[in-house]
Specification:
Elements (H helix, E strand, L loop, with lengths): L3 E5 L8 H16 L3 E2 L8 E5 L5 H13 L1 E2 L2 E4 L3 H9 L8 E5 L8 H11 L2 E6 L6 H13 L4 E8 L8 H13 L3 E7 L2 H9 L10 H17 L12
Parallel strand pairs: 1-6, 1-7, 3-5, 3-6, 7-8, 8-9
Antiparallel strand pairs: 2-4
């Protein structure tokens, strides 16, 4: 089976790229293999690559591993475009089922070169956006860049405050804007929860959360998104109904 390489990308910061990348990696890994001890030498089916100079995903997952003693998926940090390509096309990327790339929200500090190479190497792109007006222009520029490179893509609404309700005008207006552009939009809306905002601090991924209603809702958002994206399998052109 060909390796799935999903790039999480949006030049707008604060739209949940890292949260989405870590969450998808966790639910994909759990679906494929469950938990593995850190000492286990075998290569895991899912690899998360942090291509963000801020190293947010790397630090989050490393802290989770240190706290729990479990490794759900492999992860590493890359510092430049050549290193990214070597990881994906070389031994590190071989025999994986899914590779997820978390990218920077800025084009500075060499991140533009890494993003350009990531677009060359990925099978498809997920563009998270928040339901607010300030997300629209950066998201449009991001999508146009992806289209220019000929990569298939989908958008996903993220960090939506569930207290606003499913009929939130902001949610409906941003979803309508995406549809008007003719761009594919995931039906899953990833809701914003305080427990997820705190997860990088306390060292938890979506599959490590305590068993309660809010935690299950947060995990289910990622599981539903993963199913839409067929995250444990090859890229598929249509979102499953």
């Amino acid at each position: 089976m060909p390796v799935r390489v999903l790039l999480i990308m949006n030049e707008k910061g604060g739209v949940g790229k890292t949260t989405t990348a870590v969450g998808l990696a966790a639910v994909a890994a759990t679906a494929l293999a469950g938990r593995h001890k850190i000492s286990q030498p075998a290569k895991l089916p899912v690899l998360l690559i942090s291509a963000d100079p801020q190293m947010s995903a790397y630090v989050w997952v490393k802290r989770s591993e240190e706290q729990s003693g479990n490794r759900h998926f492999d992860y590493l940090q890359v510092s430049d475009a050549d290193e990214l390509e070597k990881v994906i096309t070389g031994e590190e990327g071989r025999d994986r089922r899914t590779i997820i790339i978390d990218s920077a929200g800025t084009m500075g500090f060499g991140a533009g070169d890494i993003l350009s190479r990531a677009l060359d190497l990925c099978t498809d792109v997920l563009v998270p956006l928040s339901p607010e007006g300030l997300s629209l222009e950066p998201t449009a520029r991001t999508v146009l860049a992806v289209i220019d490179r000929g990569r298939p893509f989908r958008l996903c609404l993220t960090i939506f405050d569930p207290r606003d309700g499913a009929e939130s005008p902001d949610l409906r207006e941003v979803a309508a804007w995406v549809t008007q552009q003719g761009w594919p939009l995931c039906s899953t809306v990833v809701r914003k929860y305080k427990i997820i905002a705190r997860s990088p601090i306390v060292g938890l991924t979506h599959v490590d959360l305590p068993t309660n209603r809010i935690s299950m809702q947060a995990r289910q958002d990622m599981e539903h998104l993963g199913l839409e994206l067929n995250i444990t399998g090859p890229y598929v052109a249509e979102i499953p109904a």
